[in-house]
Every structure is written in C-alpha cells, then in structure tokens.
Amino acid sequence: MTVQARRHSAAYKSPSPYNSRDTDIEKQPTAGRHTYHHHLSDDPDSDDELLDDNNVADSYPPPIVAGGSLRRPHASVGFRVPQRIMRWLCLALFAALVLFVLTLFRFTISTSVSQVAVDLPKVGAPKPPQWESFPFLNRYEGGISSLVPRSENVPEYPGDGSEELAMRTDENDEQKEQEQEANKVTKRDLHPKMLSKVFNPYPDYQSPEYIGKYGEKRECFLNVENSLRVPSIQSYPGVPKGFPDPALGSNTMLGIRDDMCFDRFGRLGPYGLGYGAKKGGIGAGMEGHREGADRVWEDVPPVDFRQVDWAAAQHRCHTANRHRFKELPEPRLNRFVSMPVGIPKVNIPPVQDSRKEPPKVGSERLPRTAVVIRTWHDFHYTPEDIMYMRSVISELSLMSGGEYTVHFLVHVKDTNLQIWSDDETYQRVLDDALPEEFRGMGTLWSEPQMALMYPGLEETLTRGLPIHGVYRSTYMPMQYFAFQHPEYDYFWNWEMDARYTGHWYHLFDKVGEWAKKQPRKGLWERNARFYVPSVHGSWEDFRQMVRVQTESGTNSANNMWSAANGAGGNTRSAMHQQGDKSIWGPERPDERDIFEVEGEGIPPTSMDKDQYQWGVGEDADLVVFNPLYDPEGTTWLLRDDVTGYNKEKGMPPRRTAIITASRISRKLLTTMHRECSLKRHSMFSEMWPATTALHHGFKAVFVPHAVYVDRRWPTRYLESVFNAGRNGASGGARTSIFGDREHNFRGTTWFYSAGFSPNIWRRWLGLRVDNDGGEQQELAGEGRMCLPPMLLHPVKEVNMVIDDGEKAEDR
Predict the structure, then answer these.
(1) Which InterPro entries does its entry note (predicted)?
(2) Average pLDDT, stretch 440-446?
(3) What confidence score (pLDDT) does residue 176 get?
(4) Which of 128, 198, 507, 565 is deepest in the core (most CB within 10 A)?
(5) Which burial class, exposed, middle or buried, applies to 726 when counting CB atoms under 10 A from its CB (0-12, 13-18, 19+)?
C-alpha cells in the first residue's frame, strides 16, 4: 500500500492525541510494544488501536516514514497461541482419542475371552393362580349305582364336605378288600338302584287346549314310509350321591329339571352309541359298564342311520306341520344373493299321510326358529360329532313338529374354491363339506362374499385380521342369512364344539321362556353380573342387591372409588362409593352415529314409575349364556375393535358377551345388517349384537344357567373374583375377570378356554382322562357316570374307540 493510500485510510478517524509520538517506533525494542485491544466490527478498517494507560505518559511522537507518512502503531492484545502450535495440539488430542478408542476395542476382541460364572439370584417359578391350590371335587364321577333322590342329596360342594369324608371312609374299607386282587378287575354288583325312563320335555300336543291354540301336531318319521319313529332319550331319577351343586347359575330357577341325570346310553344310545357300525350305529361304547343300557332300545329298536336322509326327513316334517306356522314366502333362486339352503337334487316325494282328514288348525301361529350350526368346508366330523348333530336335529326339529329348522352355515375358507363360478362347483363343495346323511342342509359362504355384501367398512386390521373375516365379524353371514330368510323369527347361532348332557328342546324352550318373563327395569345391570346362589340367595335377593349396588356403589377393594381400595382419606367421602346410572331405554352413541329403526325399546314411562312391568311377556331379542359386561376399562384385548363410529368424544357405549352361542331375533339381525350396510358400523363379533341391542333399546338377557367348577372354591372368594368389576359387576374395571384374569374360567364348564368341560364329557363317555375314568374305574367303582343337564363348551375332537368286529355285529 502506498503512503498516500495509508493517509486516506487514516483520515476516516481523527487521530487521538495519545497516539502522537516523536520516536520512530521501528527503533524501539520489541518488548516495548503496546498491547492491542480488538473491537468486534464488521468493518475491516475499524480496528482502532487504543493505548494502555501506562503507556500514555511515555508517549512518543510517531515515527516519520518515507514520504512524511506515519505508520499506524500495533495495539497490544492478550497473548494468542500461534496457529501452528494450535494445529499441533488439536492433532495430538485427536490422536489420543483414537488411541483410547482402539485400546477399548482391543479388549473386546481379545482371543482369550472366557465366560465368568456369576451367581445370579435364584428366581422361582411364577406363582400359580390361587384357584389351582383348591382341592379337586370327586363326586362328579359318581355312578348310577349310587343314585339318590335330588331332595335327599347332600352336595359335596358348596357344602362343608362332610358327605365327601363319609364316602371316602367307605371307599377306604372297600379298597382293603380290593387290594387282594390288585391286578385283576372284577365286576361288582353295579345294577342301578333306579330304572331309567323316557324323558319327554314337550308340551302335551294331544291336549284340547294345545290343539285349540296352535293346531294339531303331526308326528314326524325318519323314513319316507313313515314307519321309522324318532327314538327318545332316557334319564334316571335322582343324582349320584354327593353330586355337587352348580357354583354359578341355577337350572331350577330357569325351569330346567335337575332332579334327574343322564348316562351316556340313555342320552346318546338313540343316536348310535352302544351298537355296532354294521347295524347302523357308530361302533363305540361297546365296552365298560353296560348294566341297564338295553332299556334304551326297548320301545324303538336301534336305528340304522346309514339309511337316514336328515334333510328329507326335516322337509317332510315341516310340510306335514305347515298349518301350525305362517305361510312361507317365495324362495329366491340366485345362490350368490339369497344364500338358499341346499336341497338334494333328487326329488323329495310328497308327504304320505295315512290320515285322510285335514289337520286341525289353531287360533294362533307358532314362530319359526332356525338353528344355524357354524362350521367350515374342511371340518373333520368324528363319530361323536355326528351323534351330536343327530341329537340336535331329532330333538329340536323332528320331535317338535318343525318348530326348529336346523341349517349348516358352512364357511369356505379356501378362496381358490370358486363356489360362485357355476352350480356344479357350488354343489360339489357343499357335498364334500358335510357327511352324507346331512347333505342338503348346508349353505356356503365366504369372506370375499361378505366384502361384496358390506363394502366401504373401515379397515383397521385389528390383530392383523380383516374386518370381513370370520374372527372379527362372525355375525356378518348370519346377518345376511337372516335378511334372505324372512320366514324365521329367531335364529340360534350355535357352534360345533358345544355339548349338552340334557335334552336340547328342554334347554332352548326353558331359556326362551325365562328370558321372556324378565322385566326391563334393572335388566342391563343384572345382565352384567354372575349369579352365585350360595352367596346371593334367591333370585329376588339378587335382584335387590343389584339395585342397591347400582344406586349406591360398593365399598370393596374391587371398586376403584372405594375407600377400601385406598382411595385416600383426603378425598371427599362422596368419592368413596359412587353408583352407576341405570340403563333405561336406548343408550345412544355419538349424535352422528345414531341410526333409528322401527321397533326400538322406548320406555312407556319413567324408571321411577315402573313397577317391574315393562318387558314382562316380551320375547328377548338377544339371549346369551355369559354376562353382558361393559368392556370399558377392562384388560380385554378386543375392547377397542370398533369400526365406523365417531370416537372424538371417546368410544361409544358397548356391551360384550363372551362366546357367540346365542339366540338373536330377526329384528336385531336386520338392524345389525342395516347398520353395516348403511352406516358402515361394525364391532368385534362378541360385542356387535349386544352393543346394537344397547344402542336401540332392544331386550337382551343373560341366562344364568348352571355352571359347575372342578375345585372347592370358597364361595365368597369365587363371587368376588367373577364379579370383580365396577360396583359388583363383572366388567367396567381393570379388575374384571374378562381379560388378564380369564384363567379363572379354566376349571368351569362354560367358557372358550375351559378345561373342565372337555374332561368331564370324555369321562362321561367312558374314556380315561388324566388317569381318571375309563372302563376299569367304572367296573371297580359305582358304574358309569350320570350327569344332570350341563351345558359344556368347548368339546373338540373326541376320539372314541370304534369296534367293527364280531362284538359289534352281535349288538
């Protein structure tokens, strides 16, 4: 830079008088130079130098450089490490870090790695549930040689067990005698103390009162010639000595007789048990205790079921009794749209009635009811399954004169089977799906078909499953089946793994009648609780208890509002017991989701004015066999599987009944169908019917049938576990038995995961299970088992011993 340029640069600021020096700065020693003070500025020319105060007194005139210009002195600043040294320091620091990382990595790849034994604290196995510590009950396996009248029976449970101790003493005395022949099974005197007799639960069809009301009931037969009668089942009066009472529910309260019991021959002998396959039986039940079994075939000889066509027999029966029901509508022919019941291609001959007079017609018409058995196209039917279906068709359809019609609703799981391509494919798949004797009674459906019938549903893929799948939407095919079959007023949705030791007509008839008698007031609240007779007392006592619990709440550890649950002494006392709002009429969802239909349950008066009159005499739209509980707040995994509803203000009100076995009215199924089609609403299978009934005010009833337990539960503890939800209900809280605590059902006779139900059914059939039951125990003990009416679920794949040899030919 020239001297002239420097002058112009220095001209931007007037020189400070402290900067004037007479001495040439270049001649001064280096140590005498001044320190710089840097000012932060964006202007490169704004680096003004200020002198330290100590140097002001010793100021010198600026040196004179060439051209008379003055060189700006360097201002003194703090010591700054040269950049070269800083670069070396940073490099050293980086090298040290790399060396440190490499050193650590070296230890991880050492070739001399060895496992070091570390003593970890010993953790024991998870503590089993409390109920597993309870002792087993023994008198379920009582035999027919120990029968006593029900009124004289002292039950092993829920009594004090004195009867059991007395019986064990007798068994010990007998065991001493048996020890002499320990390896030899000898037959004892096992003649039943009572004789079996025909069990007839049907109305008196021949009475003038019945004929005047419903008309003459014509008898139905198994063959075209009307010569092969439908055999009747037999029961024994009384029960085995010490037989336990049910822990939950009551058959007596429902009107179901429990003063008798059924052995396997009296119950299933009419349907093929106990005689050989070469004579038309199943060839099972040939061994074991058979004293008195032949009485079953005294009135009606063993039936050769190889010659029976159940579809044709059912059709003839309905035709002969059509005067008792309303006229059938015209059938639809399109298989894809109407889902008709498959009819054999052979022409069914017209009914040949020997009586020339027309049947007498009553003043009223009976409702038609369909019993829809849910199955799938590749289901394997065991001989035991076939006996089960024979009993259902005989007792519900044929012997009632057509009051029930049995259908098989067959799920085609394989989408490669193009059942809608042509009639031949449809018929072939349908024929292959059912045993030969049941062909003509089935209807096919598939999940792609349901997707076409109910398009537009929100797909949430709950648990990775589609909304139109059978798991999440079990009732979709039922909805469409009901829509296409207007002749039926009610539909039983029934499963292949349900069994009943009693009579099917007796069960369905009494359950429907009891539900019809129930008043609407407090119904949803009673529906939400298990009835434990040994704790709650009579049904009237139970009803009043539920009313108090609903109005005032409960003060127990199972109630989150309760003081006993540690709600805190600082909270208001009003929070310690908080009641619930009773349901009276429809419980609506969000305003945008309301879908009003005809026939909704609108209360005729206020709840306070009702004297338990509304609903009495009204047929229930929904009948279930487990409580209708509130899933909100529970640990049930599928409580939030709700499709198509507005959830901005929370979930809609819901109710759930575990196990889909139920009776549903046409009105309810049609409403579910329209909700799916028009509003795009749906829920998980076990929530959908109950919730629809709740939203529309339809009558729903939980029937407290008899449920037995395999262990000696303390009754009050049992009640607190099964009704552990909010305010004494079974649901509505995390403490509910539905969800994480469902293991408590394993020792019961009715639940999807119950283990006691399949065991007791197999032992009753004479099979050995877990070293209990079987032929030897029957012959060395009290004979074959005899059980009162029990509804059992699940019972799957019962493999019986089939005898097709010479013994089978002789019987």
Answers:
(1) DUF3405
(2) 96
(3) 45
(4) 507
(5) buried
